[in-house]
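If your schedule permits, I should be very grateful for your opinion on a structural question. What I wish to show you is a protein chain and, alongside it, a tokenised description of its three-dimensional fold. Would you kindly read the sequence against the tokens and tell me how you understand this chain to fold? Here, with my thanks, is the record as I have it:

===
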Amino acid sequence: MKKKFKVCVVGLGYVGMPLAVEFSKKYQVFGYDKSKKKIENLNLGIDDTQQYKKKEINNIFFSNDPINISESEFIIVCIPTPVDKANNPDLKSLKLASQTIGKNLTNNSVIIYESTVYPGATEDVCLKILKKNTKLKYIKDYNIGYSPERVNPGDKKNTLKNIAKIISGNNKKTLKKIDILYKNIVNKVYPVSSIRVAEASKVIENTQRDVNIGLINEFSLILNELNLNVKEVLDAARSKWNFLKFEPGLVGGHCIGVDPYYLAYVSKKTKIKPKVILSSRNVNEGMTKMLFNRVTKNVDKKKKILIFGLTFKENCPDLRNSKNLELVKKLISSKYNVTINDEFVNKEELSKNNILKYSMDFKNLKMKKFDLVLLLVKHNYLIKSKISVFLNLLKKSGIIYDFKNIFSETEKKIFKQKKLNYLDF
């Protein structure tokens, strides 16, 4: 496979963009997304995910014209797959993408799905739609594969290139093609025997993390009731080599807070009831309410609250399924006096979520004073800020709630010396 081969990446978000950039170093790449605004920005060199600069995406042809799909030998599908209000898989966007691809399929093409789904969905749902929308013959004229996305937004160490890439295909010939394709952009490819194995590996991977975080969250609730410092207890427990390093916190994002529901959905079709999976989900979903209660216990509606962090994790602008955003909206709807700051979230996203008027730039906070400062996300700009910045933000006898344990033990003592109330998880 040489430069002449064409790759079309369908869906240009946190998963699609890294793939498009890496493939563009080896092949001709088309980036397809139905969002006109996103395509306009990308053609101006603006990446909404804030992962790439203009010079890094110059080699990619961005368009919302599906004709580019028909010109490509490899079509890689990176469409978001959330859950609906009942926490069942929401595959509407993935189905529409499959329909568009089916109508624009070219001979000898390979469609590789990367979107997270439950085991069986690629073949039982997506393939059926492809077949319905094309005159080409499956296997003879086109084939499919599945390679679960494993990107970690904001992580500069565990990048696409460094994470082992699980791959699968509908037959050995297709698997070999996919193997060669991905070996050009990643250090390690991990082939599995079937598409369903690859699908299952993805949802189990994130479900395991969700269960572990749920356990630590439950520990934290118990320890708080016993008036024990959660961090101190966990640090002591970690002195044993095999104690797993998980932190309590709000579980959001597009993977950990969603994938367990996909696994639970498919397990309900079997005789196995997903008790542990859903129990952990319930614990983690309840943490937003817990934090809301803790915050409102310490301040009334006349007091001024400053919240640092909206995104679901540090150093990225991703608001998908963010429990921090959920908490902020809950405080605002309850008529609390809230100011928010997150330097990673742009004004367009703030406006879209109806919270722009509550937001303030970091540099403009210096002259303000608050009754309670809540730190929800470990953004680098917060970690690097001097303790004096936070001291100056607090009113006399104010409260700083260090939910993510950003401050060192020495810094915690300084807050207390200044007769400020320091709280952590």
In short: The longest strand covers residues 394-402. The chain has a mean pLDDT of 93. The radius of gyration is 24 Å.
